[in-house]
Amino acid sequence: MSVQALYSAATGMRAMETKLDVIANNLANIETTAFKRGRVNFEDLFYRHEKLPGTEDSAGGLTPTGISIGLGTRVAAIQTEFHQGAFEETGRQLDVAIEGPGFFRVTDATGQILYTRAGTFSVNANGQLVIGSASTGRVLEPPITIPEDATAISITPEGRVFVQQPGSTALTQVGTIELANFINPEGLLKLGENLYAETDASGPAINGLPGQDGLGILRQGMLEASNVEPVRELIELITTQRAFELNSQAVKAGDEIMQLVANLRRL
């Protein structure tokens, strides 16, 4: 076994290690609202061509095949699978799930527009709807303010937000939740905290109202669950671990053969 074989097997170990990291992240986010699983794609490396196809043989004919030796593998891409997650009914009036394509738009503290599918809304001290966490609250874009005395909030599938106030049975519209979509959602930059940022690969955001122009609709009182399937991830984990072990065995065997050859040369 040549030194090149050791390096080729090592590329396999490195690639499988990356896949294990991605699987571990998928499993860690099984309970993360609206999390989208990652999928690792591989590609083979370039080849050492000892004889090209179509070489003229001794009889003047052209050889149908050549001799090309591959030099290993590498990670080609880690794609985000945006297929719909299951719905979890919460009954909370500020929990909103997106059924179909689309993202909520929120404004970061720096003024940057970010995107999320996690509709865990809250109301900040100014009465504005925010996607919040324990560390920060990001205001929904365009802003929607909920009156302080609102006794009930209703959000329609088309994104219209109504409130009921004391002394009145009528509902008053206070705003409309808009959605955004992208030509290539897989090109969005993952930022953590259930947030994505626009990139040149994703293309510019296409803003619109829920239920229009191919955008999804809203479901109040529900949240979108992670689209990670535990059984699928465990199968991927086992097969990836086995592939890693096979490549490590190839490295070990190659090392033993090289030591044997070195010892024979000393004789």
Describe the structure.
By secondary structure, the chain is an alpha+beta fold. It has two helices and 20 strands. It has helices at 3-28, 230-266, and strands at 38-44, 47-51, 67-70, 73-80, 87-89, 96-99, 103-107, 113-116, 121-123, 129-132, 137-140, 152-155, 160-164, 171-176, 179-181, 189-192, 195-197, 206-208, 217-220, 222-224. The strands form seven sheets. Strands 7, 8, 9, 10, 11, 15 and 18 form a seven-stranded antiparallel β-sheet that branches. A three-stranded antiparallel β-sheet has the order 12-13-14, with no helix packed on it. A hairpin with a 6-residue loop joins strand 13 and strand 14. Helix 1 packs antiparallel against helix 2.
How is the secondary structure organized here?
Blueprint: H1 3-28, E1 38-44, E2 47-51, E3 67-70, E4 73-80, E5 87-89, E6 96-99, E7 103-107, E8 113-116, E9 121-123, E10 129-132, E11 137-140, E12 152-155, E13 160-164, E14 171-176, E15 179-181, E16 189-192, E17 195-197, E18 206-208, E19 217-220, E20 222-224, H2 230-266
Antiparallel strand pairs: 1-4, 2-3, 5-20, 6-19, 7-8, 7-11, 7-15, 9-10, 10-11, 12-13, 13-14, 15-18, 16-17
Helix pairs in contact: 1-2
